[in-house]
Amino acid sequence: MTSRESGPAGIDVTVAHPARRYNYWLGGKDNYQADRDSGDAVAAVFPTIRIAAEENRRFLRRAVTYLVRQAGIRQFLDIGTGIPSAHNTHEVAQSIAPQSRVVYVDNDPIVLVHARALLTSSPEGMTSYLEADLRDPGTILGHPGLAQTLDLSRPVGLMLVAILHFLTDDDNPYDAVRKLTGALPAGSHLAISHATGDFIPARLSSGVDEVIRSENARTRMPFHFRDREEFGRFFDGLELVPPGIVPIVEWHNDAAPGQRPSVADTSGYGAVARIR
Q1: Rounded to 5, what percent of the chain is helix, strand, coil?
Q2: Given 3.30.365.10, 1.10.287.70, 3.40.50.150, 3.30.450.40, which CATH number is that of 3-274?
């Protein structure tokens, strides 16, 4: 094993991690052989997974742009940050409103190392990074680093992009989202993207199901599709922003339908809602 493959102290790079696998799909270099093997296994049965990863990043960029320009949001809580890539939340927000403040949250030490090194705020704004888990919203909301960066008496954009499908129903994801949105003032917004099996062609579905089972065991982090109804429950009691719940490639996308990837290629839902 090379020195690069040995990884930071305390990190088992022989076990694939979803954040590093996602980095591999996006063409990044912050991944290890186990992550690449896992990524290739998924791509073997779902060949457009890299397109899906790229479109998810584009959804994040469009959602943040909407929240800054149309909703007037200047504060963001981004949970499930992942390894920094192009068009991170603070980069998009601060390119429009330099005073924007962003708190990034992730439970992977490698992500936090990269985030602290690479995600530099504009002079007018601020970024901070918390090591915490979406399954424990109380720790996130009570973390002193959150209060040092965000004013929870003012509207916040809560970003849960490509993270909730790593929580099973046993993790109580709906309660976690409800606790987070319940702590935010009126005028705040919730943005979510989530993988779904609704659009996967029948000829691929059995292979996808099989690789999900095997990769769940390999990464030790379950992956869980949700259908449209299950996805919609995350927005109960909130006011959906038009066009509501749609495939990620259709949410506020100015590109003509013929110039976008297909719904089947991306297999994800996206939506943004206002907290009343």
Answers
A1: 45, 15, 40
A2: 3.40.50.150
Indicate yes or no: pTM above 0.85. Answer: yes
Model confidence at 1: pLDDT above 60: no
Strands, E assignment, 38-100 = 75-79
Instruction: Of 148, 91, 150, 149, give the one whose Cα is nearest residue 122.
Output: 91
CB 184 within 8 A of CB 155: yes
CA–CA separation, 228 vs 81, rounded Å? 24
CA–CA gap between residue 23 and residue 57 (Å, rounded): 11
Tens digits of per-residue pLDDT, 67-111? 999 999 999 999 998 887 778 999 999 999 999 999 999 988 778
Nearest to 19 by CA among 139, 113, 149, 146: 113
**Structure confidence at residue 24 (pLDDT):** 93
Percent of the chain residues past pLDDT 70, beyond the cut = 95
Q: What are the boundaries of each domain within the chain?
A: 3-274
Among the listed residues 144, 169, 174, 145, the one whose alpha carbon sits nearest the alpha carbon of residue 238: 174
> Looking at residue 212, what is its pLDDT?
83
Radius of gyration of the chain (CA): 18
Q: Three-state SS string across 169-196, please?
A: HHHCHHHHHHHHHHCCCCCCEEEEEEEC
CB atoms within 10 A of CB 55: 23
- What is the spatial distance between Cα 99 and Cα 166, in angstroms, rounded to a whole number? 32
Residue 261 has pLDDT above 90, yes or no: yes
Pairwise CA distance, residues 271 & 92, whole Å: 18
> With contact defined as beta carbons under 8 Å apart, do 266 and 52 qualify?
yes
